[in-house]
Specification:
Elements (H helix, E strand, L loop, with lengths): L5 E5 L3 H13 L3 E5 L2 H8 L7 E5 L7 H12 L6 E5 L3 H10 L4 E4 L4 H16 L10
Parallel strand pairs: 1-2, 1-3, 3-4, 4-5
Helix pairs in contact: 2-3
Length: 137
């Protein structure tokens, strides 16, 4: 049995999925990937739910905002922390992300060290019972 944190990465960019899976696996996480919103929601709501979700906004079938909203609506306080990823304009999208239930927001392209730091902060917060809270401004 492993105590490695499970991260779900949902993005329709296969190259980004491969990069994040390789990098986060090297960093000690157990990483699974999906390429559409329907599969992302299924994975979040499954019996083997991830400890944290990296969720692109523009996904086939169901967009990332809807996935986050459905996860929060279904799981409530048990929703894993969700980091919204988007290449859209940050000023407009950040509010939508947090209203959808996201714990954090990061604009593409992003610095991988920054992303890892945010993952660590959210996973440590989840361990301390602070998941789902937006970062301090």
């Amino acid at each position: 049995m492993t105590d490695r944190k499970r991260i779900l990465v949902a993005d329709d960019d296969a190259d980004l999925l491969d990069f994040l899976k390789a990098d986060l696996t090297r960093a000690g996480y157990e990483v699974s990937t999906v390429e559409n919103g329907r599969d992302a929601l299924g994975a979040i709501l499954s019996d083997h739910a991830p400890d944290l979700v990296l969720l692109d906004v523009m996904l086939p079938y169901v967009d990332g905002y809807h996935v986050a909203q459905e996860a929060v609506s279904t799981l409530g306080d048990k929703t894993p922390p969700i980091i919204i990823l988007t290449c859209r304009d940050a000023a407009r999208e950040k509010g939508i992300a947090f209203m959808s239930g996201a714990s954090d927001f990061i604009q593409k392209p992003f610095d991988i060290a920054d992303l890892r730091a945010r993952l660590t902060r959210l996973l440590e917060g989840a361990r301390d019972g602070q998941e789902g809270r937006p970062p301090e401004a």
